[in-house]
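Posting this for the archive.
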Amino acid sequence: MPKALVAALTALPTIAAASRPLLVHRGLPPLPSGRSVTLELANLEDAGTGGTVWSSSHALCRWVAANLDLRGASVLELGCGTGACGIFAAGLGARLALLTDGGPPGVLALARRNIDRNRGLYPSASVTTASYAFGEPLPSGDFDFVLGSDVAYHGGIEPLALTVRRLLEASSPPRVLLSAPDRSEKSGASLTQRLIGTARELGLCTEVKEEAVRQFALHESLAAEAVRTSVLELSLDRAVDAAAVEVACMRVNAKPSPAIF
């Protein structure tokens, strides 16, 4: 992670300290009602990288609002962090939203506070949280949509792709939409490129629904910079060699789950 980004995240106030001012994020796209989602933020010590709202969350929420009808739908959010996408989905009319994360305990505590903070946007919806790390047995329930923003990270792409494959193997598979920034690894390949390649190995098709560059700042008190973000839809590829896919899935499943920063 870039040193400047670590410094910015570390500077966010510790949410456990009541004497410090609460830092909130109000930058998500407005809901059709004209109202907005308000999200409490946390610093690295409390919630790791899950304590802030990333450009990918903005991109995914914007695309979902413009292209999907979530009224009455059930939604699973992977790697929820602050809960931005799941809460936004509930604000768009989803009847059920399960927000999951496998990060530090402070992440889900933060997401629950944000669920309560925005309860007025979805008074009749069921919006809950659950601990879930990629590659583990799937959360129970049938879902119409699966959302994940900035969930492709070094060491975690293969478990993520395996989780997506398992979700898509359901008798009534959900639509799976992920968003990721054009962030490069040491190898020079972007995380998005690695996700697409790994998904292909596990028998998944990836369609780029949107690729755009927008100005983004972690918080209104910080300078904005141009960030390229992609929104991807993943689905099963019925034309691949099933035996090869099974071998790839077994290989990924045998690896220990990576630590989440």
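The two ends are 10 Å apart (CA to CA). The helical segments are 3-11, 44-47, 55-67, 84-91, 105-117, 157-168, 191-201, 242-254.
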